[in-house]
Amino acid sequence: MAPESNQIAVGLPHVGVEELSKKWGWFLALGILLIIGGTIALGSAFLMTVFSMTFLGWLMICGGVLQTIHAFRCKEWGGFFIDLLAGLLYVVVGFLIIANPAATAVTLTMLIAMFLMFSGIFRIVLALAVRYHNWGWMLLHGVVNLVLGIFIWNRLPEAGLWMIGLFIGIDMIFNGWSLVMLSMVAKNLPEGTAEKESSA
Questions:
Q1: Rounded distance, CA 37 to CA 175, Å?
Q2: 89 contacts 64 by C-beta, under 8 angstroms
Q3: What pLDDT was estimated at residue 17?
Q4: Distance between CA atoms of 125 and 112, rounded to whole angstroms?
Q5: Which of 19-28, 44-53, 71-80, 178-187 is modeled with the greatest confidence?
Q6: First-to-last CA distance in the chain?
Q7: Closest Cα partner for 67 from 75, 56, 57?
Q8: Following DSSP, what letter does each residue of 35-94 receive, concatenated?
Q9: Burial call 134-147: b when 16+ CB within 10 Å, e when fewer
Q10: Which residues, at least 6 apart from 55, have a Cβ–Cβ distance to it below 8 Å?
Q11: Are 14 and 145 in contact (CB under 8 A)?
Q12: What's the rounded Cα separation, in Å, for the pair 122 and 56?
């Protein structure tokens, strides 16, 4: 057995090593499916963006309906009107999102761009002001955030139609690769790793 597998195994006894070793194939299959799904999402970023916004709208409607029902079932308590108004607001906003998911995506993309720019400036200023051990990495992180935020902002509103779908696709691909790598480690774990670690 390769020494790297033994070193990795030492750090895994608390996460169900035996179960992971037995079912590594499931992790591999899920990882491959996520990579395929993420690749499809990258190829149809606009459709993924619209789908995610529509899904968000329906979630808000369901949450609003449930909160409205809860308000009427518990109408004797002092927060009845707050519950009712919050539930109705969720429903209204959910319908607005479903009615125009593209506009919602553009608005959300604008907020993401602003967040990236402000967080980038904050990290740059903090890194240059404090200069602790890894200030160079924080400076790089801040510069990347700032550049990415400006890049997205300069491409609004078009960026709003594909950016969220693009981010979802990238996240699915990275998640899939992490599961594939985990399955490869689990496949090569020596038998009885959990028992050896617990008895050590």
A1: 11
A2: yes
A3: 66
A4: 20
A5: 44-53
A6: 19
A7: 75
A8: HHHHHHHHHTHHHHHHHHHHHHHHHHHHHHHHHHHHHHHTTTSTTHHHHHHHHHHHHHHH
A9: eeeebbebbeebbe
A10: none
A11: no
A12: 30
Within 8 A by CB and 6+ apart from 39, the residues are 169, 173
What is the mean pLDDT of the segment spanning 80-92? Answer: 86
* CA–CA gap between residue 60 and residue 39 (Å, rounded): 28
Mind listing the pLDDT tens digit for each residue in 118-127? 988 998 998 8
pLDDT of residue 2: 46
Angle at 14 between CA 12 and CA 20, to 5 degrees: 60
Q: How far is Cα 34 from Cα 141, in angstroms, rounded to an integer?
A: 27
pLDDT at 35 over 70: yes
- pTM for this structure? 0.63
- The residue to which tokens 């319908």 are assigned: 95
Band of the pLDDT at 133, cuts 50, 70, 90? low
Max intra-chain CA distance, the chain? 67
Which stretches within 74-162 are classed as H helix?
80-99, 101-130, 135-154
What does DSSP assign to residue 188? T
Q: Residues 6 or more apart from 95 whose CB is under 8 A from it?
A: 57, 61
Domain ranges within the chain, ordered by starting residue: 23-186
